[in-house]
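Q: Trace C-alpha cell order:
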Amino acid sequence: MAGFRSLARQVRDPGCDLALRRYSLRKCLEKFAPYGHRATWDHLCSRAGFGPEDRSPEPARLVAALEELEEARSVWLAYETDFTERRRKEKHDGLRRPGSVDDWHRLTWGGFGVAWCDDPRIHPGDPLAEVLRLLITALERDPGSDCPVCGGGRLIWRYGLDHAPSSGPVCTDCGILVPRPVLTPQALASARRGQLLMSA
C-alpha cells in the first residue's frame, strides 16, 4: 500500500495519467484528512478551483490542492512529535495517567478527523494549515467557550456523527466537531442542553 509521500509524487508526476494523479490525491486523504475524507476533499477542491466530481481537473490545480494538504500535514506531524516527546517526559517523571487532551489525541492519531466535519459541504474556509494551528493553540491553552477555529460561539451537541466520538459539540458556524478538551465544562453543558452559546 502506497504511503502519503509516494502518492504525492504521483500527483506531481506529469508522466502519470491525469486520472491517476487525481486518484492519488484522493488516496492521500486515506492517510491524512483533518475534516474527514469527504469534507477534506470538498475543501481542497473548492480552494484549488475544481469540482469534487471533476474527472479531469487542471494538473496545476491538483498540485495546489496537494500543497495545501502537505502544509497542513507538516503542521500536524510537528504537533504529534511534540506530543510524543511531552508524554515520554511525563512518563519518565512518573505521570502515567493521561489527561483529557491525551484521550482526545489517541482518537485522532495520524491526523484523520482532527477537526471532523460531519457534513462534507460545511467546513472552515481558511487554509487547512491555519485551521490546524488554531486547533493546536487551543489544545495548549486553558479551555474556552467558543470554537477554536472560527471563534464562533454557536455550539450545539449533535448525536449520530460518523466519527469517534459519535456525539459532541459541533460549531454551527464552521461545522467542526470541537474537541471537548478545548471547551469549559459550562460550554459543554450548554451545548448538551441544545442551547446555542452566544459570545458576550
Residues 7 and 24 are 5 Å apart (CA to CA). Confidence is low (pLDDT under 50) at residues 196-200.
